[in-house]
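Hey, quick one: can you model this chain's 3D structure?
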Amino acid sequence: METAGSIPSFTTKFRQRYLSALMDNLGILFFVLSLIFLGYKLFTFHDYDSIETQWRQIPYTQTWWIAGVLTLLPLNWLLEALKWEMLTAKVQKLSRYDAVKAVLSGISTGFFTPNRVGELVGRVAFLDGVNHKSGITLSVVNSLTQNIVMALCGVPACILFFLVSKGKLQPDTIHFVLIMVLCILVFGILYFKLPHWSLQLKKNRFSDKLKPFTDCLSTYKLKDLLQIIGVSIVRYVVFCFQFYFMLRFFSIELSPWQALLTIPTTYLFVTFTPSLAFSEAAVRSSYAVLIIGTFSGPVVNIALAGVCIWAVNFVLPMLLGSIILVRKK
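Sure thing. Here's the predicted structure for all 329 residues.
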């Protein structure tokens, strides 16, 4: 016979199992949709002839640049896995291997969703059912850290880029910069205040439904938050170098100073432009042509560099993450 005290326990376990099953099923759904849209994009892409022509024109001496891009690829996602491991450490200890699988699965489930918000489904799938709600919050925090770094590095580069290229800041550029500065301030305050606000919610008896999502933040110290931001900065440097190497592979000549202005500016605009991951190649290429094309002429080569860096950093990991998700299911 069940005791009165066993009913809440049974209800909690049922909810945990339901949430776990929901995350697994969402992961498979997003995976299928991602593959369908990837196939559609590849089928409807009409510039294969241009890619082939440009590819044949690239001298063999340029291949070491693409080797650099591919060499940095595992480092890029290992750093992201390290960050995820650090974020989840106070909730559930993940091995480096499981953290890598979670990150790759997140790329797969985020491929179909706006600004890759669906990444949390793939990541949370590798946490125990009891930690899924915490995982959702930590996934949002993970995105927040990278966006802070994107804005922190991109805004100064953006200001200098427009001052150098246009001679002055246009009104629309000033508005964009002001919005980004505001975002840095808001995101920064939000990020470093998360532990404090989590503790305050613990004391509030009216926030019971939020506590399963926010309690995980209360044990973080300033040192922990700074270390996570530090890893985000290192990863940012890595994928900026990847983009630079890809541009050099396509014979785009940029001085170090020009690269420091244009690449962070390009990433800033890409990050804060609403898009789906599968359409990000077009967005990235458009901004690359607009910004990097200011200092370098071959527009087709710049566009191809934008498409190829997207394919290397997202399509390849997405396909690998899809395999991991299917095996897990």
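One thing worth noting: The chain has one domain: 15-328.
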